[in-house]
Design brief:
Layout lengths: L7 E6 L8 H19 L3 E6 L20 E2 L4 H15 L3 E4 L5 H10 L4 E6 L10 H9 L2 E4 L2 H11 L6 E3 L6 H10 L13 E5 L11 H14 L4 E5 L5 H10 L6 E5 L3 H10 L2 E4 L8 H8 L4 E4 L14 E4 L4 H12 L2 H18 L2 H16 L2
Parallel strand pairs: 1-2, 1-4, 2-3, 4-5, 5-6, 6-7, 8-9, 8-11, 9-10, 11-12, 12-13
Helix pairs in contact: 1-13, 3-4, 7-11, 10-12
Length: about 375
C-alpha cells in the first residue's frame, strides 16, 4: 500500500507520567505508539503534556528519533500558548486531544489548522452525560473519537449526538514496562498461587467523588463473608479524604480488625499486594474501563467487578471473575464466599484472567489497533 510520508502529529494530553493512574497509563501508551508509528512513516510526533513536570517524563516511552515530550506543570496558559505555537510551526496533519476538556482549544486550533485531522480521546464518566456546548461541537466535528470502551462509546453517542461512525475503540492495555517492573518487584513470576490466608484487595483513590468504586460495599459485605470464611482479610491500597469515613464504617460493621488501610504505597508494596491477594474486588458503578482489573490479572488473580460501565468488557463473568450489582451487598458477599471457598476455582479463574490479558490487552494489540486508526486517517 502506498503511504504518504513525512506526516506530522501533535499530541495534547492532560497527563501521562504522574500520577500513575489508568488515564495516565493509557496516555503513556498513546505517546509510545504514536512516536513509533510516525517514526516508521518517516514523520514526527510532538507531545505536550499539561499536568506533568519535566522530571516525570520516562524516556522509555519516547522514541529516540522523536522529540521529547514537553511538560507544563499544570500551567494552562503556558499549555495553550504552547499548543498554538506548535500548531503554527509544526503544521500537523493530525492533532490528538487527550480529553474533551480541551474542546475550546480544539476549536481554536481547527481555525488555525483546518487541514489537520482532529481526534479526541474519551474515557468514562466525562462523557456519560450531556457535555458542554463547546465539547459537543468539538466531538461532533472531530474526524475521529477514540473510546476506551464500547460502553463509553454508546453513552457519548446517546447523550451528545455524535455520529457513531466517527467513534472507534482503543481499549486500554497494560503498560509493558509497568508489567515487567511489577512482576520483578513482587519477587516472583505471576503464578496465581493462593496466599496463606484469604485476602481481598481493592486499589483505588479514597475520594468522596469516587465512592462509586465500592469500597463501602466491600466493608458492608465483610461480616457475611467472615461468617463463612473466618480468616478473611481485606486490604485497601490508596488514600484520600474519604478514608476516615471508611475507617469509621469498618468499626461500625465490626470488621476493623480485618480491614487494612494501607494508604499510598511504594511500587514494590503495590506489586506485593497484588501477588499476595486471593481475589481483587472493586464493584464499581461507574468504571470507564478498570485498568486495575488488568493489573490483578497480571498476577493471575480473578476479580469481582461491578456489572456497570466498561467493567464487563474487562472481567468476563464466570470465566475471569464475577460481576455484581453495585448496591447488592448480599450478592457481593455471596460471590466472594463462592470463590474464596474454592481455591481450585480461584486458580483456574486467575489463569483465565491472565490469558485474557495476554490475548486482548497487551501493548502489541494496542499498537496494532492504533496503527490501523492512524493509517486509515493519514493514508487516504
Amino acid at each position: 500500500m502506498s503511504r504518504r510520508r513525512n506526516n506530522r502529529a501533535l499530541l495534547l494530553l492532560p497527563g501521562a507520567f504522574c500520577p500513575a493512574g489508568g488515564l495516565e497509563m493509557h496516555d503513556r501508551l498513546i505517546i509510545k505508539g504514536m512516536q513509533e508509528i510516525m517514526g516508521e512513516r518517516g514523520g514526527v510526533c510532538e507531545t505536550l503534556v499539561l499536568l506533568d513536570k519535566d522530571e516525570h517524563v520516562d524516556a522509555r516511552y519516547a522514541d529516540p528519533s522523536q522529540p521529547r515530550p514537553r511538560t507544563f506543570a499544570a500551567s494552562r496558559p503556558r499549555f495553550v500558548q504552547g499548543a498554538v505555537a506548535r500548531t503554527l510551526a509544526l503544521r500537523p496533519d493530525l492533532i490528538v486531544f487527550g480529553h474533551v476538556n480541551f474542546s475550546a482549544l480544539g476549536l481554536a486550533l481547527r481555525a488555525l489548522r483546518p487541514q489537520a485531522r482532529h481526534w479526541y480521546l474519551v474515557y468514562g464518566i466525562d462523557v456519560w452525560h450531556r457535555i458542554s456546548l463547546p465539547q459537543r461541537v468539538a466531538t461532533r466535528s472531530a474526524d475521529r473519537v477514540l473510546s476506551i470502551s464500547d460502553y463509553t462509546r454508546v453513552q457519548l453517542v446517546k447523550h451528545n449526538g455524535v455520529d457513531p461512525h466517527r467513534v472507534d475503540l482503543l481499549p486500554c492495555a497494560l503498560d509493558p514496562f509497568w508489567a515487567a517492573d511489577f512482576v520483578k518487584l513482587a519477587g516472583a513470576p505471576a503464578s496465581g498461587a493462593a496466599p496463606p490466608r484469604p485476602l481481598l484487595l481493592t486499589v483505588a483513590r479514597l475520594a468522596a467523588t469516587e465512592r462509586y468504586k465500592g469500597v463501602d460495599q466491600v466493608i458492608r459485605a465483610l461480616p457475611q463473608i467472615a461468617a463463612r470464611i473466618p480468616d478473611v482479610r481485606y486490604a485497601v491500597v490508596g488514600d484520600g479524604g474519604d478514608r476516615a469515613r471508611l475507617e469509621a464504617l469498618a468499626r461500625e460493621m465490626g470488621v476493623a480488625d480485618r480491614v487494612e488501610f494501607r494508604g499510598r504505597v511504594s511500587a514494590e508494596e503495590l506489586a506485593r499486594a497484588y501477588a499476595e491477594c486471593s481475589l481483587f474486588v472493586m464493584p464499581s458503578a461507574k468504571e470507564g474501563f478498570g485498568i486495575v482489573f488488568l493489573e490483578a490479572a497480571l498476577f493471575g488473580k480473578p476479580s469481582i467487578a461491578g456489572n456497570h460501565g466498561g467493567s464487563p468488557e474487562v472481567v468476563e463473568d464466570g470465566v475471569t471473575g464475577r460481576l455484581v450489582t453495585y448496591d447488592d451487598v448480599n450478592g457481593l458477599a455471596a460471590a466472594a464466599i463462592d470463590l474464596l471457598a474454592d481455591p481450585d476455582r480461584l486458580r483456574v479463574m486467575g489463569q483465565a484472567a491472565l490469558q485474557r490479558l495476554e490475548e486482548r490487552f497487551t501493548y502489541p494489540t494496542f499498537l496494532r489497533t492504533l496503527r490501523g486508526h492512524v493509517e486509515g486517517a493519514l493514508d487516504r
